[in-house]
Write a structure and sequence with these properties.
By secondary structure, this protein is an alpha+beta fold. The strands form 2 sheets. A 6-stranded mixed beta sheet has the order 2-1-3-4-6-5. Strands 7-8 form a two-stranded antiparallel sheet. Helix 6 packs across helix 7. The longest helix is centred in the middle third of the chain and has 18 residues. The termini are far apart.
Length: 281
């Protein structure tokens, strides 16, 4: 296994994510032992794990995140072919959200500084109740790994609480306009991010300059990200959501024989992948 660029701990760790929670965490030196094959994790045998490389400052504020995948074999040992330069990627990360200590450096599938590694990364979820950034921040603040800290600051995430005054009905349109303007300003400043999900491409972190294009035609945008045309994407999507033979038999009834699902639009062949063996064109 090649070098992953993991040096001393230096306030850095690896979090394993499961069901939108930090299921396991370890210092980078311990993670290195897994990469070298000295230690296995039997409960992760034959599992594709979503993990995050986390770098913290002396105040335990998150400074950089790399969302990566790693496979564990039947003995619970890390894939010997896995070789991501995590620290190098972290240094080259894009500007991410403010997690308490200023904007972080962010590396994920849709924000990868080196296309060679994009397929080994994944995109975080930012939907309410499933926000990976919030989960990671809480785990870092808890400091289960006992990193030395110079201080322990109070979290300062702006939150609209249930007891806060809501706008009166007559103020609603004005309030909404101000809110939308504020959100757009934050998106432009990259202090918040807009994430969309589409089958075939997964979660997309939308650059500010792409927002208007996306909302003008989300399907066409997703198709372009998959490297196919909009009609091709829609044909694949019909198959993906209901993988059955579409051949029309007598009486205009579809054959409907179940078929293997093609998971990527670029691999889908109309007339073949949406037809059973007896009805392929």
């Amino acid at each position: 296994m090649g070098s992953t660029g993991l040096g001393a701990d230096n306030h850095s760790a690896v979090f394993f994510i499961e069901n939108n929670q930090v299921a396991r965490q370890m210092r980078t030196s311990d993670f290195g032992a897994f990469l070298d094959g000295y230690v296995g994790l039997s409960d992760l045998a034959e599992t594709d794990v979503k993990a995050v490389f986390v770098e913290l400052d002396d105040d335990l504020h998150v400074r950089s995140l790399v969302f990566f995948r790693i496979w564990f074999d039947e003995e619970g040992r890390a894939d010997s072919r896995w070789d991501l330069p995590l620290e190098e990627l972290a240094v080259r990360g894009s500007k991410g959200p403010d997690m308490g200590g200023g904007a972080i450096r962010l590396v994920c599938r849709s924000l990868c500084p080196d296309p060679r590694y994009a397929s080994d990364l994944w995109d975080p979820d930012m939907t309410p109740g499933n926000n990976h950034f919030q989960v990671i921040r809480e785990a870092a603040s808890a400091n289960t790994l006992k990193f030395p800290s110079t201080q322990s600051d109070e979290d300062n995430i702006p939150v609209l609480r249930a007891g806060d005054a809501a706008p009166a009905p007559t103020e609603d349109l004005h309030y909404r306009a101000l809110l939308e303007a504020d959100v757009l300003a934050r998106l432009k400043a990259q202090s918040v991010f807009l994430v969309a999900f589409h089958p075939g491409v997964g979660h997309l972190t939308l650059p500010y300059d792409d927002i208007a294009t996306y909302f003008n035609n989300p399907v066409a945008y997703a198709a372009a990200r998959c490297g196919v045309s909009e009609p091709e994407y829609l044909q694949w999507l019909e198959h993906y959501e209901n993988p059955v033979c579409l051949h029309l038999c007598s009486g205009d009834e579809a054959c409907s024989e179940p078929l293997p699902r093609i998971s990527q639009p670029g691999n889908f062949k109309p007339g073949q992948d949406n037809r059973c063996e007896a009805h392929r064109l």
